[in-house]
């Protein structure tokens, strides 16, 4: 077996600057989760596919989990918003949402199970920082960019520039 952990796909998370349900970058205002400082790993889907295909016949990946963690793409939400502001030439109005305010709708009986699952995923990524808060130091873990330095992955800036 080989498991590939791709982290936050650009089309779902990065394109809308992590705005829930938004798939193009906002040009006026943005919600920041907490202080917006938790590191997130942003990965363009084509790059994830490239890395995954490289693992298929690679004996170095047998019985391992390959984490796709492009070094230039380990950025906080606040850093990503800053890149977008530079690209679009505007300063966005930032509204911070606290952990408590984010979680409160989950206690509401009218919130659907699907919505609760989506909110839980956002919570663990943006409030807890659980994508980038651990080191790869076990023998069954490896990092794709280190294994395949020949892959020229798409940076956050290059990805967002398509919307500018």
TrEMBL record:
Protein origin, superkingdom: Eukaryota
Pfam families noted in UniProt: NmrA (PF05368)
SUPFAM superfamilies tied to this protein: NAD(P)-binding Rossmann-fold domains
GO terms, molecular function: pinoresinol reductase activity
GO biological process, one term: secondary metabolite biosynthetic process
InterPro entries linked: NAD(P)-bd_dom_sf (IPR036291), NmrA-like (IPR008030), NmrA-type/Isoflavone_red_sf (IPR050608)
Source organism: Picea sitchensis (Sitka spruce)
Residue intervals of the NmrA-like domain: 1-160
Name of the protein in its database record: Isoflavone reductase-like protein
Family: Belongs to the NmrA-type oxidoreductase family. Isoflavone reductase subfamily.
